[in-house]
């Protein structure tokens, strides 16, 4: 009986995710620079993740958006939800703004600056 309990405990330990600090980071190769390709891939993944009903449109509720004004600005065709293209356009604008030295990559410093200046 004791053995079974130990095995069960072992199995539970294995079930705990092994990776710590699991990244939402777009820096897929972990070199400290986010290229536009990495950024686009991450944007796509993020959009897909948020589109919970899979209807190809991201509603404000699905995205958990807190700022209706910003949402409306991104919703360029004004239908109340963001298509993948609208979402990508909004993200691309952020990328261009964050890439302050315009080398096509977001360094950690640039990322930090962009996050810090982001108002909620
Ligand atoms: Ca949706
Ligand atoms: Ca729209
Ligand atoms: Ca840069």
TrEMBL record:
This is EF hand. InterPro entries: EF-hand-dom_pair, EF_Hand_1_Ca_BS, EF_hand_dom. The keyword Signal applies. Residues 1-20 form the signal peptide. SUPFAM superfamilies: EF-hand (SSF47473). It holds the Pfam family EF-hand_5. Residues 49-78 are annotated as: Disordered. The lineage of its organism: Bacteria, Pseudomonadati, Pseudomonadota, Alphaproteobacteria, Sphingomonadales. Keywords: Signal. Residues 26-39, 72-88, 93-110 form the EF-hand domain. Residues 64-73 have a biased composition (Basic and acidic residues).
């Amino acid at each position: 009986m004791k053995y079974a309990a130990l095995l069960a405990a072992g199995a539970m330990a294995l079930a705990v995710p092994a990776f710590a600090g699991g990244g939402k980071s777009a820096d897929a190769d972990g070199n400290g620079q986010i290229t536009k390709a990495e950024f686009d891939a991450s944007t796509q993944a993020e959009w897909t993740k948020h589109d919970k009903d899979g209807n190809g449109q991201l509603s404000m509720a699905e995205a958990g958006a807190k700022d209706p004004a910003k949402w409306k600005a991104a919703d360029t065709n004004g239908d109340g939800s963001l298509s993948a293209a609208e979402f990508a356009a909004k993200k691309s604008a952020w990328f261009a703004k964050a890439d302050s030295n315009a080398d096509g990559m977001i360094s950690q410093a640039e990322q930090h600056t962009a996050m810090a200046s982001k108002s909620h």
